[in-house]
Amino acid sequence: MSTVVDVSTAVYYDTATRLFDAAAAFFAAVDAEWPELAKAAEMAGSYAEAQTWADIYDRQAQETLDLVSRTANAVHNYGTILLESGYQHALADHTANLDPGPEPTKPAAPQIPVFVCRVPLPAAGGPGNGLSGDQSSLVRDALGLADKIGITIPDGDATKMSNAAAVWERMAAAGAVAGLVGTLEAAARAFDDVTAAESAFIDEDLRAAAAAAAAVVAAMLELAASTREHRADLDGLRTQLVDHLTSIANALMAELAINAAVSVASSWVTFGVSIAAGIAAAAAIAARYARPIRATIEAWRTARRAKNTARASANTLANHAKEMRRLEELGGSAKTPTPTAARPLTEADKNALADYSAYGSRLNNAMREGRITEEQQGRINELNSALDKLPNHEGLVVRRTALPDDVLAQYQKGTNVSDPAFTSASTGSGFTGPVEFQIMSRTGKDISGQVPTAYAPEAEVLFKSGTNFNVVDRFVTADGRTIIQMTES
């Protein structure tokens, strides 16, 4: 397979467009189901174990929908990054051309959307008791069965639970949701033959977004399964209650010739008894069955408590949300780029840039050690002045180096770091070192066209002395490299 040396900007632009469309469709497919999901309010029941289950359900539902929002935003923002990177490559090609013609037109990014999922209503709640008598019944007043049982009979709306499970399954199966993983993996593959320095990072980031999208689908299916399990367990209990109540009804008929009817509604079991005489005898019959019913309920509630544990996806969702926040932050730096035009360089400017390419390490060491001579300060001023006249390079650049442990320790996630010296990076990948800085540049300057020919292949992007950076993330790869991702403050 051949490699692409001259980067095709169409790969960047086309992929960005696919990401914009996929992010919007993904979010819309989930958000459209919210009205149905909201109907699941107070489905779980009001007894203690139901409230515990509902708390776990509510938390995972919120975390799942939060990851939906973050993934949609991250994918959209990454499309913005690709647009900007493609444009920077187009500018570089234009500058390198001996007969460049008109400057390339910067593609317009779509308006930044607001992807925020609505939070589902609480799942806990219900009528308060899972045993009810019809309006013509004297079961509560006369038989006092619920009082004789002595504990809350589990309630919960079985129909709402089935509907909620169906909504989660429908969201997970929606083409724009289930298909986002494939779209992002295809987007990553589009850069397989691109040799630009950032292509490896693009692949990693898009596959991270694909993993988050897969986690969303898995969490939705887990919520559906958990809800169906909760309903199935409640149905099982109600089947046992019906058996007990049927036994009571049979005894009432056999001993007192009293008719009783047993039925199951969405939220409770109905036991209807119409009696005009023999109330005390009927209540005594009901009392014989109260203890077995209580034992059944207690055993069932003990089994439910054992199942009320945090879902397997809890940590996974948090980890993916962290990754999507990182991509959101990277995207933020490319949302409102402000390219600057180059200004003519004086001979002093050109000399400062050329000297830095050969002797910059000496100057940087002096700056970091605080032993700058008057002559060196003059060179620093000239170099900063020259950099001010060059156009900004906006996009991802890389710096590979080796750092002492005490210096490396300064670069921790969430910190702001300022190097008193000049910071060198590259749009190429020809350097080696155990520490790799991935910097989203806003004001770095591409000096490759201003240095002696021998240094031009380094594709150097230089930041002014004292530039401030935010450390967005830091991690170690499988091969032992320390990766530090930064944006300009």
TrEMBL record:
It comes from the Bacteria. InterPro entries: ADP-ribosyltransferase. GO terms for cellular component: extracellular region. Residues 341-474 form the ADP ribosyltransferase domain. Pfam families: ADPrib_exo_Tox. This is ADP ribosyltransferase domain-containing protein. It comes from Nocardia bovistercoris.
